[in-house]
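Case study 2.
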Amino acid sequence: MEKVTQFLKEVRHELSKVSWPTKNQIIQYTAVVVAVSLATAVFLGLLDLMFEWLLNKFVIK
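Prediction:
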């Protein structure tokens, strides 16, 4: 049990050194992640539609 207690004390000490982001930074980072995810989804969706059209036009007929 002593090792667990020591480990938790060290974790707490290390976490006190962390530079945590501000609320505005979190909001901005979240917006960037959502925007990039949506852009990627749209891009992949358009690729899927293009390949489906190509397959139907030239392969499947």
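The mean pLDDT is 96.
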